[in-house]
Design a protein that fits this description.
It is a single chain. The protein has 6 helices and 10 strands. With 207 residues, the chain is of the alpha/beta class. The strands form 2 sheets. Strands 3-2-1-4-5-6-10-8 form an 8-stranded mixed β-sheet, sandwiched between helices. A two-stranded parallel ribbon has the order 7-9. Helix 1 links the parallel strand 1 and strand 2. It is globular, with a radius of gyration of 16 Å.
Length: 207
């Protein structure tokens, strides 16, 4: 299977690329700066481009079986990388007749904010307000498409190792300050690749 990964140089995207290669997939990383992807592999290709440029995205998606997005605003607390990027990806997929996409967003975006514990909710509604608003715009555009999408809502992300032990579901119970490693999020997203029962569904993931 040929998979195109957006956000491949981000902290979660790099785990997706590495683990995808370990599983035997043909991975192509779409990146702005190839020097940030310090990885060589016979089944890894790199496309340099800007996800906020629609022509760049359209030229990249042709010929792939599946798209994975780990897009975000990086260390910035503002920006529209997610919303513009998801729109460009969705539009390109429609033009190229590609149906399957798995997208990492965040627990607390949209209606899921009502289920966030008190302490993280304060953080999300203040410091991350702009970031989550951008993700909500992108999610709405994805939801309105006819693609076979799956949204992944991780709780607070950490740099811990892959454990393979976590809980996921459309509605799950999380603790007062829930966490999940980026490596485990990548593991979960790659498990979704061959699971058609997850189409048009949103999953929360927590340790």
């Amino acid at each position: 299977m040929k998979i195109l990964v957006f956000g491949a140089t981000g902290p979660t995207g790099q785990h997706i690329v590495r683990q995808g290669l370990e599983l035997g997939y043909e991975i192509t990383a779409f990146v702005r700066d190839p020097s940030r992807l310090n990885l060589k592999h016979q089944h890894l290709s790199v496309i340099t481009g800007d996800v906020q440029n629609s022509n760049s995205v359209l030229n990249a998606v042709r010929g792939f079986d599946l798209i994975i997005s780990a897009l975000g605003n990086g260390k910035s607390l503002t920006g529209n990388v997610f919303s513009v990027g998801i729109k460009n990806i969705v539009d390109a997929m429609k033009q190229c007749h590609i149906r399957r996409i798995i997208v990492m967003s965040a627990f607390g975006v949209g209606n899921s904010l009502n289920r966030v514990p008190v302490l993280p909710k304060v953080f999300y509604k203040t410091l991350l307000k702009s970031t989550f608003a951008d993700k909500e715009i992108g999610e709405k555009y994805l939801n309105q498409s006819n693609l076979d999408w799956t949204l992944v809502h991780p709780v607070i992300l950490t740099n811990g190792p892959k454990s393979g032990v976590y809980k996921s579901g459309e509605i799950i119970s999380v603790g007062a300050f829930p966490k999940i490693s980026r490596a485990d999020v990548a593991d979960f997203m790659l498990r979704l690749v061959s699971d058609k029962t997850t189409n048009k569904r949103t999953f929360v993931i927590s340790s």
